[in-house]
Amino acid sequence: MPTISILEDQVIVKNIRKSLVPKVLIVDLEGSKSSVTMDLHKEIFTVKEGEALNLVMGKELPQYKDGVDFCARGVVAGIKKDDRGERVIISLWGFLVVLIPKDQSIIENLSPTDQIYFCLRRIST
Predict the structure, then answer these.
(1) Contacts of 67 (CB under 8 A, 6+ apart)
(2) Based on the number of CB atoms within 10 Å of its own CB, is 117 exposed (0-12), middle (13-18) or buried (19 or more)?
(3) β-strand 52-58 against 34-41: which pairing, if any?
(4) Radius of gyration of the chain from Cα atoms?
(5) Is the pTM of this model over 0.70?
(6) What residues form DSSP beta bridges with 56?
(7) CA–CA gap between residue 95 and residue 102 (Å, rounded)
(8) Residue of 54, 48, 34, 53 whose CA lies nearest to 98
(9) Using one digit for the tens of pLDDT, what is the confidence trace for 28-60?
(10) d(Cα 116, Cα 106) in Å, to the nearest integer?
Protein backbone atom coordinates (compact mmCIF):
# COMPACT_ATOMS: atom_id res chain seq x y z
CA MET A 1 0.00 0.00 0.00
CA PRO A 2 1.56 3.37 -1.01
CA THR A 3 2.01 6.01 1.65
CA ILE A 4 -0.07 9.17 1.47
CA SER A 5 2.00 12.33 1.71
CA ILE A 6 0.88 15.67 3.08
CA LEU A 7 3.43 17.38 0.85
CA GLU A 8 5.75 16.35 -1.96
CA ASP A 9 7.81 19.10 -3.54
CA GLN A 10 11.07 19.45 -5.40
CA VAL A 11 13.05 22.11 -3.57
CA ILE A 12 16.27 24.00 -4.24
CA VAL A 13 18.74 24.89 -1.50
CA LYS A 14 18.66 28.70 -1.71
CA ASN A 15 20.81 29.70 1.25
CA ILE A 16 22.94 28.11 3.97
CA ARG A 17 24.10 30.06 7.01
CA LYS A 18 25.71 29.22 10.33
CA SER A 19 23.61 28.89 13.44
CA LEU A 20 24.78 29.97 16.88
CA VAL A 21 24.70 26.26 17.77
CA PRO A 22 27.99 24.53 16.83
CA LYS A 23 27.79 22.22 13.76
CA VAL A 24 24.21 23.34 13.04
CA LEU A 25 23.34 25.19 9.84
CA ILE A 26 20.21 27.10 8.93
CA VAL A 27 19.08 26.06 5.48
CA ASP A 28 16.52 27.81 3.26
CA LEU A 29 14.70 25.67 0.68
CA GLU A 30 12.38 26.91 -2.06
CA GLY A 31 9.96 24.80 -4.07
CA SER A 32 6.88 25.28 -6.21
CA LYS A 33 4.57 24.27 -3.33
CA SER A 34 6.49 25.45 -0.26
CA SER A 35 9.31 27.40 1.33
CA VAL A 36 11.22 25.90 4.24
CA THR A 37 13.75 27.22 6.73
CA MET A 38 15.27 24.53 8.89
CA ASP A 39 18.05 23.63 11.29
CA LEU A 40 20.34 20.94 9.93
CA HIS A 41 23.26 19.31 11.75
CA LYS A 42 26.18 19.03 9.35
CA GLU A 43 27.20 15.59 10.61
CA ILE A 44 23.75 14.17 9.85
CA PHE A 45 23.04 15.53 6.36
CA THR A 46 24.94 17.93 4.12
CA VAL A 47 23.60 20.05 1.28
CA LYS A 48 25.06 22.61 -1.12
CA GLU A 49 23.54 25.87 -2.30
CA GLY A 50 21.77 25.27 -5.60
CA GLU A 51 21.24 21.55 -4.91
CA ALA A 52 17.84 20.10 -5.80
CA LEU A 53 16.12 17.72 -3.35
CA ASN A 54 12.76 16.05 -3.05
CA LEU A 55 10.92 17.09 0.10
CA VAL A 56 8.37 14.58 1.37
CA MET A 57 6.27 15.15 4.47
CA GLY A 58 3.59 12.80 5.74
CA LYS A 59 2.09 10.95 8.64
CA GLU A 60 3.62 7.67 7.49
CA LEU A 61 7.29 6.91 6.87
CA PRO A 62 7.99 7.36 3.14
CA GLN A 63 10.55 5.37 1.21
CA TYR A 64 14.08 6.69 1.57
CA LYS A 65 17.67 5.48 1.24
CA ASP A 66 19.35 5.06 4.62
CA GLY A 67 22.70 6.85 4.71
CA VAL A 68 21.83 8.87 1.58
CA ASP A 69 18.62 10.75 2.36
CA PHE A 70 17.52 12.63 5.48
CA CYS A 71 14.33 11.43 7.13
CA ALA A 72 13.19 12.24 10.66
CA ARG A 73 10.06 11.84 12.73
CA GLY A 74 8.91 14.97 14.45
CA VAL A 75 5.95 16.74 15.90
CA VAL A 76 3.97 19.76 14.76
CA ALA A 77 4.90 22.25 17.47
CA GLY A 78 2.51 24.92 16.24
CA ILE A 79 0.76 26.61 13.37
CA LYS A 80 1.22 30.37 13.22
CA LYS A 81 -1.00 32.66 11.17
CA ASP A 82 -0.34 36.27 10.22
CA ASP A 83 -0.79 38.57 7.23
CA ARG A 84 1.63 36.39 5.19
CA GLY A 85 -0.47 33.26 5.71
CA GLU A 86 0.11 30.18 7.83
CA ARG A 87 3.42 28.67 8.85
CA VAL A 88 3.88 25.24 10.34
CA ILE A 89 6.54 24.88 13.03
CA ILE A 90 7.88 21.33 13.26
CA SER A 91 10.28 20.03 15.86
CA LEU A 92 12.55 17.18 14.76
CA TRP A 93 13.94 16.18 18.15
CA GLY A 94 14.74 19.84 18.89
CA PHE A 95 15.81 20.88 15.40
CA LEU A 96 13.23 23.29 14.00
CA VAL A 97 11.59 23.32 10.59
CA VAL A 98 9.42 26.25 9.50
CA LEU A 99 7.23 25.29 6.55
CA ILE A 100 5.42 27.99 4.58
CA PRO A 101 3.01 26.35 2.15
CA LYS A 102 2.14 28.26 -1.03
CA ASP A 103 -1.29 26.57 -0.98
CA GLN A 104 -2.81 26.62 2.50
CA SER A 105 -4.86 23.48 1.76
CA ILE A 106 -1.60 21.51 2.09
CA ILE A 107 -1.73 21.94 5.87
CA GLU A 108 -5.47 21.92 6.54
CA ASN A 109 -5.29 18.43 8.07
CA LEU A 110 -2.38 19.25 10.40
CA SER A 111 -2.78 20.12 14.07
CA PRO A 112 -0.34 20.84 16.88
CA THR A 113 1.05 17.64 18.43
CA ASP A 114 0.56 15.63 15.19
CA GLN A 115 3.47 13.29 14.59
CA ILE A 116 4.87 13.56 11.08
CA TYR A 117 7.85 12.46 9.00
CA PHE A 118 9.95 15.08 7.27
CA CYS A 119 12.30 13.80 4.58
CA LEU A 120 14.77 15.30 2.13
CA ARG A 121 15.65 12.81 -0.58
CA ARG A 122 18.57 13.12 -2.95
CA ILE A 123 17.63 13.33 -6.61
CA SER A 124 19.40 10.63 -8.62
CA THR A 125 21.34 11.88 -11.59
Answers:
(1) none
(2) buried
(3) unpaired
(4) 14
(5) yes
(6) 8, 119
(7) 23
(8) 34
(9) 999 999 999 999 999 999 999 999 999 999 999
(10) 14
